[in-house]
Design brief:
The chain has about 120 residues and is mostly helical. It has 8 helices and no strands.
């Protein structure tokens, strides 16, 4: 599907160009509400491809603050992105989202994965 058609799914009153959207993703802190809207309405595959694994793991705890379990529209994407974050970050889909864990080095995350896989060690 064309990227502009995908962007129109989330931004009905004038979709940004793909280049503008990529700019929003580069500066998540500044465009947090816009990025959260994309996470709510755009296909997950599109979002994850645009973000990339490393940036998603790093930025999801920050974006997550725009979501609420009290809002029905937020529940499903919040749970799903939390599970993806946990799998990609430490290898456990039920691991709680944490910005501290997201900032750990790659090697420390590997050690966490190992301890999750082998709890007896």
């Amino acid at each position: 599907m064309d990227k502009l058609k995908i962007l129109r799914q989330a931004y009905w009153s004038g979709a940004p160009t793909h280049r503008q959207f990529r700019g929003y993703l580069r500066d998540v802190e500044k465009h947090k509400k816009c990025v959260a809207t994309a996470f709510r309405h755009l296909p997950m595959k599109f979002i994850l491809e645009e973000f990339g694994k490393g940036r998603f793991v790093r930025d999801w705890p920050n974006i997550r603050s725009e979501f609420s379990f009290d809002q029905p529209l937020d529940q499903k994407p919040l749970e799903t992105y939390d599970a993806i974050w946990g799998l990609w970050c430490v290898g456990d889909c039920q691991y709680p989202v944490s910005s501290t864990v997201a900032r750990l080095s790659k090697r420390r995350k590997q050690i966490m994965r190992l301890t999750i896989d082998e709890p007896g060690i």
